Amino acid sequence: MNDSPNHPPLSNQQIEAQAKARKLLSYFAWSLMLIGLPFLLFGVYFIVYGHETSSWDKVEGTVVAIQTEVDVDLSTPYSSGQTRMSRDNKYFFKVEYNYPVNDQIYTSTRYSMGEGSRASDLFEDRTEAMAKGKKKYPIGSPITVYCNPDSPTDAVISAGINLGTVSPLLIGLFIFGCGLLFKIILKKAT
Hints:
Layout: H1 12-52, E1 57-71, E2 90-101, E3 104-108, H2 126-136, E4 142-147, E5 155-156, H3 163-189
Antiparallel strand pairs: 1-2, 1-4, 2-3, 4-5
Helix pairs in contact: 1-3
């Protein structure tokens, strides 16, 4: 019995085309889930590792330099006559510090696990970024450094979890979740 009297029955060719389309969409859903899975796994690892930094050994280090770097906005397209440096670039500062472990001096610029060496928000001007960095972290001043007891070269000055440490997990959840949702919708449609 035909449930939709307004529609003629499907031909074998149409049924085969629908089956192929469902199979292709199913592959797409699985692909999304497979792409999202490594992000999920790395995200969990990164959160655990970021959290562990809070229990690392604390040593007193010394600020040795403040450096600024450009954060190029690649989302803004070039217009005629613009060069890379004439675009709306933003600047941030990073802190270089020394710290002693077992009578050996190490140097690092890593700020946190999630932010890498970026120790500030973005500034419109390089000199403003430098001034803020020197004000917050005066050169020669002491600084608390969290040092991995198993690997002294692994250190941060901002321990714990931040947005950068949760980002891979959020990306993985989104991609994997889209694939799973796609798969569920596809299953209900059949």
